[in-house]
Amino acid sequence: MDIRSQKEHPVILLVEDNPDDQELTIEAFRECRIANEIIIANDGEEALDYLFGTGPHAGRDITRLPQLVLLDLKLPKIDGIEVLSRIRSHPVTRLLPVVILTSSLEERDLVESYRLGANSYVRKPVDFVEFLDAARQLGLYWLVLNRAPTVAPPESGG
Amino acid sequence: MSPAGIPTLSLRFRFTVVLVLVIASLVGLFMVIGEWRIADTVRVSLVQQMVERDALLTQALIPRLRERGFIGLQDTLDTLRTKGALHYLVLRDADGAILASSGWPVGQTLPESNIAQLHQDVRLPDVVHVRLPLRQSGGAIGILHYGVSTELPGHVLLMQRQSLLIEGVAILLVLLGVGWGLMRWMLAPLRLLLEACERIERGEATPRIAARFSDELGRVIAAFNRMAESVQIRLSGLRSAEGRLSAMISEFPAILWVTDADLRITVVEGLGLRSLNIPVDRLRGSLLSEHLGEDPASHPALLAHVRALSGEQGGFTLDFGGRTLQCFVGPLRKETGSIEGVVGLALDITARREAEAAIRDRDRLRQTLLSAIPDMAWLKDHEGRYVLVNEAFIQAIGRPLEEIIGSTDEMLWAQANEGREFRAHDQQVMASRRTLSFEETFTRRDGSVRRLHVTKSPVPGENGRIGGTVGIGRDVTEQRQAEMALRRSEANLAEAQRVARLGSWEWDVRSGVLRWSDEVYRIFGHAPGAFEASYARFLEAIPDEERPTVEAAVSRALETGQLYSMDHRIRLSDGRERRVHEEGLCSYDVEGKPIRMFGIVQDISERWALEQSLLNMQRMYWILSEANQTVIRAPDTTALFHGLCRVLTESGLFRLAWVGRMDGEQGRIVPLARTGEASPYVDGLNISTDRDEANAGPTVNAIRRHEPVVVNDIANDILMWPWAARARDFGLGAMISLPLYLKGEPFGAINAYTQAPGFFNDQVVQLLRELADDMMYGLEFFVARDEREAAQRELLELNASLEQKVDERTREAEAINRELEAFSYSVSHDLRAPLRSIDGFSELLVKKQGERLDASGRDYLERIRRATQRMSVLIDDLLKLSRVSRADLHLGEVDISALASDVLEELHSAYPEREVTIHVQTGLRRRADPNLLRIALENLLGNAWKFTSKTPSAQIRVDEIEIEGARWIRIADNGAGFDMKYANKLFTAFQRLHGPQDFEGTGIGLATVQRVIAKHGGQIRVGEAGVGQGASFLLRLAER
Predict the structure, then answer these.
(1) What share of chain B is helix, strand, coil (3-state, %, to 5)?
(2) pLDDT in tens, B893-919
(3) How far apart are CA B820 and CA B816, in angstroms?
(4) Of chain A residues 88-147, which have a CB less than 8 A from chain B?
(5) A127 with B876: Cβ contact below 8 A
(6) pLDDT tens-digit profile of B877-898?
(7) Residues 6+ apart with CB under 8 A from B506
């Protein structure tokens, strides 16, 4: 069905400040045979620059959205909660699937994330084997099973 | 004033009115006739003119028609109309067609002729319409219509009216002249009458009218003349009567006055005026109220006058001008009956008043005298009729006063022989002209027979004759009976007299011999008949200070004949004093000289003592009541002490009262308050508290003995010897010292002193004890109040500092909580990330470089990974513990059975390979926070699950047990258990009783459970445990 068109933009945006976690996540996706291109943002600012075509990403066609955003909460400069809030408040990215992938299991993080419209909240397990399992399931679910709406860019930012 | 207020010319006026009316109607009639005459003239002239005009018109028109036919006919008609002063002129032919017309509107119907009206109607038509046929040689050639005005020419009318006016004026003048003459003629006799009346009015003599008329008026005048004569006669009579009355009044032995309606005195006459010390000139013309003192408005005299003005007669008594006047007032009426003033009459009743007052005084005196006599007393006239009796007499015979006065003894007494006997005695007295005593017997109405000891004296009457008798009778029935009885026994006699404590005496004033009864001797402290009693001996027995009073009383009784009655003291030969009551009455000879005095003496010492003590008690109660008030009102102890002392001395019972405090340091009693006339006594006192009991004074003794100490004779009591002299100087005869205590500890004493020795009896002491109690009550109250206030102040300060501390602690706790939260949050995020790196890269190392490592290398990596896992679990558990600490408590009813089953179900599905026998008691409910309680149960049941993992036939049990009345929830297993000696370490974080090789764990679980239960205010403890024998934990939570 739309698999082909998805293959044309197989981008996952990973917002993660810890290089170890970046590495492990990429490794985990690779292990799970997820071939999508993974764009890495090291902090909230980079993530927003990428998504809205600002800063180093000026001129990028922002209608070309990533298929999935994996968002850590504790980030330098702009934290994950703020990033999520910006994504949800912008018309282009309003419906973009965002999965919170973080270490915390604090109640207030959970509540705040869901309140701001996170699509899912996954805690990064310490055990790498479990981590792999989690990554596989995420990929399978969000990249294969889940159907996102075809996001048409609006005429003007309304 | 005009007699009836009628205008004198009214008759003339009426007459004139009638005349004017008659003339006016005549003039009217004349005018109507004039109008009619004018109309008639017009009518005649009109008819005459018409005939002429018809002839003229006929003559003018017929030839015209004949000669010229119709040519120029119109002009001819116009000319004719103008000449004839016609309204219109119309010519018609014989057939009725109009040939020519002048002044008549074309087409309008011509009116019919109205000549007939000219003759018939009184009123003339404005225009006369004429229809004139034009004839010639027997044939009609046409008809001429014309209209002519009926108005006369102006000059004719004017002429007519002038003649009429002249006629009218002439007639009017004639009428006026005739009328004037008539009026004078008719009014002449009336004027005569009027003049006569005016003469009477002026008071001129002979108002008689010379009669010149023989008609009705003549008779009226004659009647008037007769009336005037009789008035003349009466008037002169009245004047002479007035003169006589005036003369009479001025000689009248009374006062007569008249006031006008304003109560101004217009007339005041009478001989009585001479006795007034107010000149008559001041009365005449003055207002009544000027003579009625300061408040005339409510003076009875003024009120009576005012009533008289409204027609009411009245009387009053007036003290005026130094005399007492009996006054009568009544209205003074005019002839018309209206009231124009007041007439009054006053009689001088001063003398009568004085006489009456004198009589009343004498009667009162006599009555008083009689009433004062306790015995029966009476006055009879020469015939033996009772004139005066006293109350005792009425009481004794039991008849009303009216029956007694005027009756004789024969009439009064039931037994005729008794009355005769009394009468015989009276006659004996009158004959002898001496005072005599008799024993009389009479029978009362109720049949009882009484014996009287009667003393009768003659009463001097007029002209040296005896006017009657006066008597005093004493009922001696009982006395006589007693005497009779006593006569039988001398011993009884003496005894009875002693019991009565009443002696009698008889004093022959002339000889000075005084006879005492035996009892009198005893009362005076002597053996009966020990000496010859005399007035001098009697006086000797009386203390010096009272003797003059007694002598004066006796002399007064002798002089006035009044009852001698008084209380006085007597001094006995052994120095003792007694108080006696004496009464005596003197009898006199005909010249009024005292003959002898008879009296009684009674020993009233005991009664008097009783009265005195009652009086004292009364004062004592007053003291207590005042003391209560003082205790209630006093603002502090100083006021309390001073107030109570003041109450004591103000009662008049005590010369001195003072309060002393025991000063332990100085070793003496320190005065705090003192009142009374002898208060300087306290200043020089030095009362040491160190003396032993034998030497201590009453104050120290009272304090030591815990009871009041009384010294009823300061001068002779050993207890007071150091102060006796000083006390005597201040006039202190007896004293009491009442100890005071404060909270059971001696405080001091209150002392009170009287002048009289022996004052303090049991009752007084008891009442003073109550006073002391009141005082202690007040004292304790003040001390307690001060202490309470101090305690309250302390409490307030403490409260303030406590609140401050709580605030500080709260702030500290809040800061710590905030830090803890921030810490937990960082831990949650940051502490796990490195672990994940270690674990992840270890795994990757094994995976990717595994073949380059030997077995021990891979083992190391495995160990690294296990350590990482443990660290991760540890962090999670710590976070959980911290969350429990921070969580808010949301209490609700929790079904613990269901919750436990749920947790166990989860454990079972996590470890499906385990075989565990589970027993959960149903219906366990507690009030708790469900989330926190779940954490607790997860830990406890998780532990049970874990530690039974190596036990075959594992069992986990959740139930309820009761220990010492409290209900506990028990969670028990039959797993590995532990040694009870470590039970107290269990709930500390990181404490483990098993190695990780045996059972996994962080040692935080039970600490978390403990935290949860503590947060609920509950309790957790180990029930039973033993190594290899399982363990049970007990939870206690609020049930509702």
Answers:
(1) 50, 25, 25
(2) 899 999 999 999 999 998 889 889 999
(3) 6
(4) 102-107, 124-129, 131
(5) no
(6) 888 887 787 777 888 889 999 9
(7) B514, B515, B596, B597, B598, B599
How near does any CA of chain B get to the CA of A43, in Å?
15
ipTM of this complex prediction, to 2 decimal places: 0.75
Closest-CA distance, A19 to chain B, in angstroms, reads: 10
Give the containing element (helix H, strand E) for B514. strand B514-516
3-state helix, strand, coil in chain A (%, to 5): 45, 15, 40
pLDDT < 70 regions, chain B: 1-10, 119-123, 138, 152-154, 203-208, 210-214, 414, 486-487, 489-498, 500, 693-694, 996-997, 1040
A-B C-beta contacts closer than 8 Å: 63
- Shortest CB distance from A105 goes to which of B828, B839, B869? B828
Tell me the pLDDT of chain B averaged across its residues.
83
Counting Cα atoms < 13 Å in the Cβ hemisphere of B1 gives: 3
| The pLDDT of residue B491 | 61
Contact B500, B519 (CB under 8 A): yes
Helix, strand, or coil here: B467? strand
CA distance between the termini of chain A: 31
CB distance B320 to B276 below 8 Å: yes
Nearest residue in chain B measured CA to CA from A123 = B829
Q: What is the pLDDT of residue B904?
A: 92
Which 21-40 residues of chain A touch chain B by CB within 8 A? Answer: 21, 24, 27
Chain A residues within 8 A of B825 when measuring between CB atoms: 104, 106
| Contact list, B882 vs chain A (CB under 8 Å) | none
- Does B829 contact A107 at a Cβ distance shorter than 8 Å? no
Q: What is the pLDDT of residue B1008?
A: 87
* pLDDT grade for A157, boundaries at 50, 70 and 90: very low
- Cα→Cα distances B540→B523, B756, B987, Å: 14, 25, 114
Question: Can you read off the two tokens belonging to residue B474?
Answer: 């004493």
Q: What is the pLDDT of residues A6-65, one digit of tens each?
A: 445 578 999 998 888 888 888 888 888 888 888 999 988 899 999 888 888 888 888 888
Taking CB atoms and an 8 Å limit, are A126 and B872 in contact across chains?
Answer: yes
> Measured between alpha carbons, how far is B19 from B184 in angstroms, rounded to an integer?
13
Query: Rounded to whole angstroms, how far apart are CA atoms B486 and B482?
Result: 6
Average pLDDT over residues A113-121: 92
CATH superfamily of A11-144: Response regulator (3.40.50.2300)
Burial (Cβ within 10 Å: 0-12, 13-18, ≥19) of residue B210: exposed
CA-based nearest distance B834→chain A, Å: 8
How far apart are the CA of B865 and the nearest CA of chain A, in angstroms? 8
Q: Is B849 on the interface with A (CB under 8 A)?
A: no
**Residue A73 and residue B841: Cβ atoms within 8 Å?**
no
Task: Name all domains of chain B by residue range, CATH numbers in brackets.
Answer: 10-171 (3.30.450.20), 252-348 (3.30.450.20), 362-477 (3.30.450.20), 490-603 (3.30.450.20), 611-793 (3.30.450.40), 888-1036 (3.30.565.10)
Q: At what angle do helices B1005-1015 and B855-886 cross, to 10 degrees?
A: 0
Amino acid at position B382, single letter = H
Quick one: pLDDT at residue A93? 87
Token pair for A56: 């180093």
In this predicted structure, the answer to whether residue A100 has a pLDDT above a threshold of 90 is yes
Q: How much is the pTM?
A: 0.36
Tell me whether A45 touches chain B (CB under 8 Å).
no
Q: Are B864 and B838 in contact (CB under 8 A)?
A: yes
| Domain coordinates in residue numbering, chain A | 11-144
Do the chains contact at A27 and B836, CB–CB below 8 Å?
no
Chain B: residue whose CA lies nearest to A132: B840
